[in-house]
Amino acid sequence: MKHAVLIGASRGIAYYTTLNLLSTDEWTCTLLLRKPEALAADPKLTPYVESGKLVFVKGNGTSVEDVAKLFDKPADVVITSIGGAPRFTLRGAELDQPRVCTEAAETLLKVLGKLDGKPPRVIAVSSMGMGNSHKYMPLAWRIFYPWALHHPHLDKEGMEYLMCRASTTLAVPEDHIPPPNILPRENISQIREDFLPEVIIVRPALLTGDGPLKGKDKTKVSEDLYSYTVTRMDVAAFISDECVQEGSKWVNKLPIVGY
Q: What is the CATH number of domain 2-258?
């Protein structure tokens, strides 16, 4: 049986990915949660906790000590979908933790860089419009995103930069390095580079909610996808159906997911 570690799975994309994986006979999961009690009584998860297929680890995704606990058992895949809580202002969305994605990536890569043996596949949830993918968005989104999502995207850029730098294959986006207040330059040198053989950076279109699930027939995936929206459940379905499988064609790519 394969094992997945998930960070940021208390809700949203990683939560639905957890449910999808556990519903098969192939996967067990470990979740890092700041408040495990919040999911302890979740009726969708309780049977898996009782059977031992699901384990909660209490901790914070920006703590090296806490994240290291996740790898007491070897993992085949790590899925990180951590994010801050947005607050909308006249300057667009602002996060309660402006560099949480970047800091969590720093933390995870420090831990993975010290593991023995082959590192697990890393699947990181980012956003459409990052880097060169901005040019593939509909015109309305190319105008809307820089205003509405400027600050969250700086944080995502920090995460993507670090993931690409740690990858043995993905090109480092030198022209899309966020400012030092998001990614301090002295932090970069502390993180190992060119050591992850399998990285997937998933870039969802504008998230419109948790559901309903439209399925594979309606969901499109491409590195140059022109798309407006997608739901969290369909992004989760893409990850659990196509990204975690051995030999996935999306390994070392940056797929955009949308309708």
A: 3.40.50.720
In the predicted structure, residue 215 carries a pLDDT above the cut 70: yes
CA dist., res. 137 & res. 206, Å (int): 10
The domain ranges of the chain are 2-258
Instruction: Please state, in angstroms and rounded to a whole number, the distance separating the CA atoms of residues 238 and 243.
Output: 7
pLDDT digits (tens, 9 = 90+) for 60-103: 999 999 999 999 999 999 999 998 766 767 666 776 678 999 99
In a 13 Å sphere around the CA of 222, the CA atoms on its Cβ side amount to 8
pLDDT per position as a tens digit, 106-158: 999 999 999 999 999 999 999 999 988 999 999 999 999 998 888 899 999 99
Q: Angle 176-177-180 (CA atoms, 0-180°, nearest 5)? A: 150
- At 187, give phi and psi (nearest 5°): -70, -30
Pairing of strands 77-80, 206-207: unpaired
Alpha-carbon span 132 to 20, nearest angstrom? 31
> What are 232's two structure tokens?
């969290």
